[in-house]
Design a protein that fits this description.
binds magnesium ion, binds adenosine-5'-triphosphate, globular, alpha/beta, Rossmann fold
Length: about 270
Amino acid sequence: MKGDMVFELSRVSYTYMNDGDALESISMRIRKGENVSILGANGSGKSTLLKLLDGLYFPSSGEFRAFGSSIHESSMNDKKISMEFHKRVGFIFQDPDAQLFLPTVWDEVTFAPLQLGLSKNRVKEIASEVLNKMGLYGLKDRTPYHLSEGEKKKVCIASIFTLDPEVWLMDEPTASLDPQTQGWMIDFILELAKRGKTCIIATHDLEIPYVTSQTCYILGEDHKILAEGKAKELLSQKDILLKANLIHKHRHFHNGSVHIHPHEHWHV
Ligand SMILES: Nc1ncnc2c1ncn2[C@@H]1O[C@H](COP(=O)(O)OP(=O)(O)OP(=O)(O)O)[C@@H](O)[C@H]1O
Ligand SMILES: [Mg+2]
């Protein structure tokens, strides 16, 4: 159904000023409640694609539609339209330092709801609830800059969680997390999915699509879609995973000779 469509990209390309292409003729349709993984080698364009879906960048050519409307720089420059959009779409950056900019964790998690004009008491309630739920309340007076990478990532999530958007864009959500916190992150994504949220996740961590996603797009080093389809089917195609640098050839010694075979760093 048309009304179910969250994002539609039609032959979208993006070129950084004075640099080469970052996205080349990308077409995709993402429905409400769909869980999508974007996989691909370093530099293939995953972060650029998520920034485009967050209305931070705009296609150099092609069309981007969100919630049925065409998105342009001029519309997103309108404060009201941009605020409405960002109430519905939350973005967890690949680098937490690019997202966190306030003196304390408390300031970070109260910033967005205050911007939306909620009363101070209501904001206090929401922020306390989210921090407690995520086990972060004890860090509320800390400076984000001095937190560990994993703690920073959780604060980024908490600051988006206060808005509880319907669409979550996550860029490498399990990167630099310890194995237990990676598990926590996967459970968090599954919980969002259970609550009907649309999650679009850029990652190299193949456990994420395997466990959480229905649909998978793999970007190639030429910045085009190399493959798309059902997550579990794509993950079984080792030739495509090798081509996209998602698994590597593992080298080891056998009886004095070198033996090479495809090697995956994910186990389910
Ligand atoms: N601010 C920028 N200015 C110029 N070129 C950029 C900029 N950001 C990214 N690029 C280029 O655009 C291409 C896509 O980069 P992008 O960060 O989207 O890739 P990625 O798939 O997210 O990579 P990674 O797995 O390393 O995070 C790369 O060739 C990169 O060098
Ligand atoms: Mg990236």
